[in-house]
């Protein structure tokens, strides 16, 4: 499988995570932690897809700050989403286990916005990653 096809697969899975997060908004009560987790997962997969597209093997990590640094090696434009990556990183672990403090709806809205910002930047600079079936 070529880099483009692999990158499109990463994008497809990222899009499914983001769509899942958006779908879960209709639940009552809203599963804030689960939505935040899906947002982190979506951003992680978009970043890894971009690395794959550019011939890099993405590290097997969930730290979006670290993934963003790898992307920065390819383009300085990733400085534009460094804050969003930082905001989302904790959601890779925190929402999966009962911990204090509990996440609130404003955290969820910020996570959704951050994940969409990561998606939008990557698909703007690498539109060929867009997978048509999602």
TrEMBL record:
InterPro entries (UniProt xref): HEPN_dom
Pfam family, one: HEPN
Positions of the HEPN domain: 11-118
Alphabetized SMART domains for the sequence: HEPN
SUPFAM superfamilies membership: Nucleotidyltransferase substrate binding subunit/domain
Highest taxon of the lineage: Bacteria
Record-given protein name: HEPN domain protein
Organism, scientific name: Syntrophobotulus glycolicus (strain DSM 8271 / FlGlyR)
């Amino acid at each position: 499988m070529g880099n483009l096809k692999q990158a499109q697969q990463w994008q497809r899975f990222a899009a499914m995570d983001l769509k899942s997060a958006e779908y879960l908004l209709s639940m009552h009560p809203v599963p804030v932690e689960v939505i935040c987790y899906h947002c982190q997962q979506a951003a992680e997969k978009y970043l890894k897809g971009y690395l794959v597209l550019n011939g890099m093997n993405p590290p097997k990590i969930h730290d979006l700050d670290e993934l963003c640094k790898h992307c920065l090696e390819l383009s300085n434009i990733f400085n534009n989403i460094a804050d969003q990556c930082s905001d989302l990183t904790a959601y890779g672990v925190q929402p999966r286990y009962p911990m204090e403090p509990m996440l609130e709806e404003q955290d969820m809205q910020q996570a959704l916005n951050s994940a969409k910002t990561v998606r939008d930047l990557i698909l703007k600079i690498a539109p060929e990653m867009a997978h048509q079936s999602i």
